[in-house]
Every structure is written in structure tokens, then in C-alpha cells.
Amino acid sequence: MNPRAAHEPRQHKRRSTLIPAPGTQANTGVAPSGTGLRGFDLHRIDLHRIDVRQAGLIAVLLLLAAAGWVFTADRMSGMDMGGWTDPGALDFFLATWVVMLAAMMFPSVAPMVTAYAKISRRRRETGRHAPRGSTALFVAGYLLAWTAFGLVAYGLYEAAASLAPGRLTADPGGRYAAAGVILAAAVYQLTPAKNVCLTKCRSPLDFILHRLRPGYGGALRMGIEHGAWCVGCCWALMVALFALGVMSVGWMALVGAFIAVEKMLPWKRLANRSVAAALAIIALTVALTPTATGGMGM
């Protein structure tokens, strides 16, 4: 035995952030064969370093979100009638819904979009198939998933309104129903399903490593898949928005802030529990105060 080695402190290898704790699935940083990117080493890509092109992409997303807020505020002007506001005709709702999604979601989805764009660019630089414009299709797929949810929510709202005429109003019955929906959204915040979906939304590298597909079709499919995880994470918040008044820019801004806090702040558990507590307080206020859902329009 080397006596020198006995007195020297043992050198510990630095654990990669891509290596999970014991008992979890190993993440080697190399895309699995099922993704069509066998051997592609993601360790060589620094997703935390923002270059000029990424900054430009973030700026575009934020500008689109700002334009969405302006368009939505103008389109919804005078339509906020408090809780359970009628979303209007389907064509009007659909156009407003898509723009509203861009306004609410683009800031919080920016890390995923920029990570996808950076990895696609790296693949082009290494001679792999990654066509230009695939990032736009990724975003389009994301919006498609949320648009599908919006259509389902619209259909359920119209069905409930036709089965129980006059119930979804600002009257006491409708107010208590709204409070119940918002409280249910608060409870959903604490469920395992919410935790799994939120983790997926907060982990761009993990999603891309296991879901990345080449080509335009792959980009669209990835966007839909990520959008589906986002729907699983935030559907209850969006249903709560219907109860509060889907045509209210004020409530829309608050729900959008909840989504951004959960997805972007580093303290996942604290952010999640804080949103749950805020929803519970809002539910109690709506139940006890007749005018609680009014006055949030802009």
C-alpha cells in the first residue's frame, strides 16, 4: 500500500446535475435511441448560458405576449360581467382564447422554447437533421394542445349553461359554484398529478432528452406533448378563470402570474403551496362577498 495515498484526502468526483439521486432513472445526458438522436451528447450544450440568438427569441416571445395583452384587453373591453361571464360565440371565443394563451403562457414557456431552439441549432452545427423554423412549429404544437383544452372547456360550459339556465351567474347560487370550483383548483395544487406535471414543465432538459424528435413533424409533436403536460399542470387554474370571469383581463393577469410563479421561481414547493393558499383565500372571498368577482376588468 502506498503510504502517501493513505494520508492524502480522497478526491471526490463532482456529481453531474444530470445524474439523479439513487432510486431514480439515470440520466446520462445522451439522448436515448428511441428519440432518433442516438449518441447526441447534451452535456456539451450549456442551456443556462443565454447568447444573442436566445435573447432575441426571448424578446420575440415577450413582445408577442405583450401584443396579446393589448389585443385581449381591447377585445374584452366591456365584456367582463363578473363570475361565469358568457364566453360568447365559438369563433369569437376561439380567436380570443388563442391570443389570451400567448399573453399568459409565452413568458413561462420561454425557457423550454429557448432550450429546444438551442439544441436544434447545435444539431445543425454537428450535421444532424434539424430544419430551420422547427421552433415555430414547436410553439404551434404547444398552442394546439391548449386550444383543444379550450374547446373542451367551452363545450362543457355551454352544456352546463343549457342544462341549468341561470345557474352560472353572479347570483348566490353561481357565486357558491364559482367558490367551489376555485377551492377545487386549490386542492388540485396539492395532488401527486399536479406535482408530476409541474415537474415536467419546470425541466426543459429532461423533457427534451426523452422526447426530442427530428424534423418538422417531430417539432410539432413535441410541442403538443409539452402542451399536454402544461394542460395537466394548469387546467384547474384555467377552469378557475372561467368561474372568476374568463373575459376579465384582471383575473386573467392574476392566473397568468400564478402560472409564471409556479414554473419559473426556483422554490417549487413554496410557489406551489403559495398558489394553493391564494386560491383558497379567493374561494372564501368569492363565497362571502357578492361583488368579489367584479371590478377586475381593465
The largest sheet, given as strand count, sense and whether it forms a barrel, is: none
Helix percentage range: 55-70%
Percent in strands: under 5%
Number of strands: 0
Keywords:
mainly alpha, 10 helices, about 0% strand
Compile the SSE list and pairings.
Elements: H1 3-7, H2 52-75, H3 90-125, H4 134-163, H5 172-188, H6 192-201, H7 204-211, H8 215-245, H9 249-264, H10 268-288
Describe the structure.
By secondary structure, the protein is an all-alpha fold. The protein has one domain. The protein has ten helices and no strands. Helix 2 packs antiparallel against helix 3 and helix 4 runs parallel beside helix 8. It is globular and about 65 Å long. It starts with a helix and ends in a 10-residue tail after the last helix. About 9% of the residues have low confidence.
Please summarize what this structure is.
The chain is mainly α. 66% of the residues lie in helices and 0% in strands. Helix 3 runs antiparallel to helix 4 and helix 9 packs antiparallel against helix 10 (268-288).
